[in-house]
Amino acid sequence: NAGVTQTPKFQVLKTGQSMTLQCAQDMNHNSMYWYRQDPGMGLRLIYYSASEGTTDKGEVPNGYNVSRLNKREFSLRLESAAPSQTSVYFCASSAGAWGTGELFFGEGSRLTVL
Amino acid sequence: GIQVEQSPPDLILQEGANSTLRCNFSDSVNNLQWFHQNPWGQLINLFYIPSGTKQNGRLSATTVATERYSLLYISSSQTTDSGVYFCAVERAYKYIFGTGTRLKVLA
Predict the structure, then answer these.
(1) The pLDDT of residue A71
(2) What is the DSSP-derived secondary structure letter of residue A73?
(3) How far is A107 from chain B (nearest CA, A)?
(4) What is the arithmetic mean of pLDDT over B44-62?
(5) How do residues B76-88 score in pLDDT, each as one tens digit?
(6) Which of A40, A53, B3, B33 is a Cys-bridge partner for B26, taking CB atoms 3.0 to 4.6 Å apart?
(7) What string of DSSP letters covers A28-67?
(8) Do B93 and A99 count as a contact with CB atoms less than 8 A apart?
(9) Contact A25/A32 with Cβ under 8 angstroms?
(10) What contacts B29, CB < 8 A, 6 or more positions away?
(11) Which residues, in sequence order, are CB contacts of B93 under 8 Å at separation 6+?
């Protein structure tokens, strides 16, 4: 049982390049989330999907887009990467729809934008 | 939006000491969790505790939802307890994190 799986684990981009972070969960969870963590700081919510077919902005959505591809998968896209998006990105899921239930995290994706 | 504050921001302990970490939140919440982020960056679930008290080995947690705070107790600390402890509260369909308490346990 893998839980929450993120790919890639490491990525280096040049300013202006685009990329997609993939997230998949095998726990049949309804809600999924993307967070970013900057050095020495807590986690800030980028986007979330409270149930399959819905997505909403979190605290820091600018420069990102998301797609809830199906119940298992929730991707995060950077259309034109900027150095300010250098961070560690975490995907998470919870069982209940509309945010209820315990939150479980993937191992993170470290992104560097030069 | 809801504010989540954790204290103290930093804590250094000798192995074997006890500690209490606090999480205050500014509005009513539906759920609350405590996480440990280890030195490798992994986020480990400690407690899912919207109210009441739970214990797991040397760790225990208490949430008093009516007074908008939660406490995490670490007893007989070990070097493996080092890392950052986060609380996260769920309100309006999403979890919001505090800024964490950075704990270092010295051998």
Answers:
(1) 94
(2) B
(3) 6
(4) 96
(5) 999 999 999 999 9
(6) B3
(7) --SEEEEEEE-TT--EEEEEEESSTT--EE-S--TTEEEE
(8) yes
(9) yes
(10) B2, B50, B65, B68, B89, B90, B91
(11) A31, A48, A50, A56, A98, A99
SS3 B107: coil
User: How is residue A45 written in tokens?
Assistant: 């919510």
Per-residue pLDDT reduced to its tens digit, A92-101: 999 876 657 8
Assess whether the previous peptide bond of A39 is cis (omega < 30° from 0): no
Tell me the shortest Cα–Cα distance from A27 to chain B, in angstroms: 16
Structure letter (DSSP) for residue A71: S
Taking an 8 Å cut-off on Cβ atoms, the answer to whether B99 and A42 are in contact is yes
| Cβ pairs bridging A and B (under 8 Å) | 62
Question: Which among B35, B90, B99 has CB closest to A41?
Answer: B99
Contact (Cβ atoms closer than 8 angstroms) between residue A21 and residue A4: no
The pLDDT of residue A99 is 57
Write out pLDDT tens, residues B19-38: 999 999 999 999 999 999 99
Burial classification of residue B1, based on how many CB atoms lie within 10 Å of its CB (0-12 exposed, 13-18 middle, 19 or more buried): exposed
Q: What is the pLDDT of residue A106?
A: 97
The answer to whether residues A101 and A86 touch, using CB atoms and an 8 Å cutoff, is no
A108 touches chain B (CB under 8 A): yes
- Are B93 and A42 in contact (CB < 8 Å)? no
Three-state secondary structure call for residue B28:
coil
